[in-house]
User: Fold Diphosphomevalonate decarboxylase from Pyronema omphalodes.
Amino acid sequence: ADTKVYTASTTAPVNIAVIKYWGKRDTKLNLPTNSSLSVTLSQDDLRTHTTAACSSTFSTDTLILNGESQDVSGARQQACFRELRSLRAALESANSTLPKLSTFPLLIVSENNFPTAAGLASSAAGFAALVRAIANLYELPQNPTELSRIARQGSGSACRSLFGGYVSWEQGTETDGSDSLALEVAPASHWPQMKAAILVVSAAKKGVSSTSGMQATVATSELFSHRANVVVPQRMEKMKQAIKERDFETFADLTMKDSNQFHAVCLDTQPPIFYLNDVSRAAIRAVDEINKKAGKKIAAYTFDAGPNAVIYYLEENEQAVLGALNGGLEGVEGWKNVTASADVSIEEAFL
Ligand code: PMV
Assistant:
């Protein structure tokens, strides 16, 4: 019998949306109520590293995240395992000499180098790395867009972490989710001057999970359908154009408006959901001041389901943006200076 342990490793990056996904039309398949668009961050700072192994000698599917065993019985994990196994089984039935990996239990070992579930898109990198690692283990021929269909079922935003650079998640119209996929808008090399500063206001776990928050918003917010059906479709087109033209002012304008509107529909949810705190609001004011002083938009803030800020800017403005952020937030409690380093595209500040 085949008692070999087969392994493959990979890393997947975090992505931060500039047009936000918020709302599901199908909670089982993670089909969204609107398309979204993100920038993938450098793997040097924020990434998940995952090793996938399988062997006939393993007893059951196991997932270890940051050294702790996780429950894999959940529908999201199960959907990813099932879909990947069925793609592998198709290869095995076409070629009988292949080892029957699809029948072996899986062992997945994952490490994040940043706080988990603190609104830093950990589930995005996590599920993208899980899908990519198993796809590598199974030697699947599927491309990143095809794999994004599977990663999406783990966590919606994960589908965008299968690409670097600028990535859209097209909501699709099919009820089976076959056209709800990630596409590359532009590679990172198209606009290499783009940088991001992450202001870690709190590394605590978020209060309201994105899944329950989204469902509450869809069920109760009256502003929500305007956002999903009218505003976002127009913004998606404008954002793609801005990225194509490397037009930072339009990129920044749309990014900040979309973050604000996402938090507005959270506030319009019953009961209201508050992800931003006083430090987040101070960061917003600091960015507004930077842009006012520059006479144009040179910095753009965005916030996910937590208080931490991600601030996009172009390399040429690094001193102006990071210097002013440090100065502008000096008196604010709960804030620590960002540190800039030359060779990475993210600056982090952990408190
Ligand atoms: O994929 P989830 O369930 O982690 O939801 C992500 C939601 C936001 O981060 C707030 C927005 C986005 O598009 O990433």
